[in-house]
Design brief:
The protein is mainly alpha-helical. The chain is built from six helices and two strands; from the N terminus they run ααααββαα. Helix content is 80%, strand content 2%.
């Protein structure tokens, strides 16, 4: 009896190529999700350091901070955040590719049921309009978008605080010179450009996910039509 119980508890090995592929792709999908979370964590830690450590270090030194150096440092950091956000979108698209492959080849019932459930109950994050009660699931892509928006604002605010203490003191705003007014305006363009970049990448990612959804069935159909023709030509040879 004990031997039979132990044998029953041992999971059976995958018997077909499809089952082996499904196991490999599920593991790959989990790894991609972990990488996506790790990138978001790195961005969060870096934004916090730039927002609080930067102004603190600037307040400890009496040396003058030039506008070009401050602008370049902030630009590079916002560029890095935008790069990390794009990286998370690339990983998310790979997960999307894997999910549709599993679904269209009947290798994962979970993918089918989960996709149908989220379509029925998923709602977007909207700060201006209340979400209907039945739309209680939020897209992970929306959370990553708003997280990187917050990271960028926090990092930019740290740079602005340094500039306010060294270059354009707000207490003397009525005595600003032309270069100070130009510096504040030009520095403000950084955060505007960053937010516009994130929104454009978000919109493009949604369009690319839609293309993946439409291209997978076409690709599989073309492959199924070409494979019999290729096999028949080999048999004739």
């Amino acid at each position: 009896m004990g031997t039979q119980t132990n044998e029953e508890q041992i999971p059976s090995a995958p018997s077909t190529i499809g089952q082996i592929d499904a196991q490999k792709l599920h593991a790959e999908s989990l790894q991609l999700r972990s990488q996506q979370f790790f990138l978001s964590t790195v961005a969060l830690a870096g934004a916090g350091l730039s927002a609080w450590v930067g102004p603190g270090l600037a307040g400890l030194t009496d040396s003058r901070i030039g506008f070009f150096g401050l602008f370049t440092a902030t630009f590079c950091w916002l560029g890095l955040l935008a790069f990390l956000y794009e990286w998370t979108l690339i990983l998310r698209r790979l997960i999307h590719v894997i999910g549709w492959y599993l679904q269209l080849n009947d290798l994962s019932n979970w993918e089918k049921q989960f996709r149908a459930f989220t379509i029925a109950h998923q709602g977007k994050i909207n700060l201006l309009e209340p979400t209907p009660p039945e739309k209680y699931i939020r897209s992970q892509n929306d959370f990553y978008y708003w997280a990187f928006v917050l990271y960028g604002i926090v990092a930019w605010t740290g740079g602005f605080v340094v500039g306010e203490s060294k270059l354009w003191p707000l207490q003397a705003i009525s005595y600003w010179k032309a270069e100070q007014l130009f510096g504040v305006s030009f520095f403000g363009l950084l955060i505007v450009g960053y937010l516009v970049t994130l929104q454009s990448r978000r919109s493009r990612n949604e369009a690319e996910n839609k293309r993946i959804e439409n291209d997978w069935p076409k690709f599989l159909k073309e492959r199924s039509l070409n494979e019999p023709a290729a096999s028949s030509s080999k048999e004739q040879q």
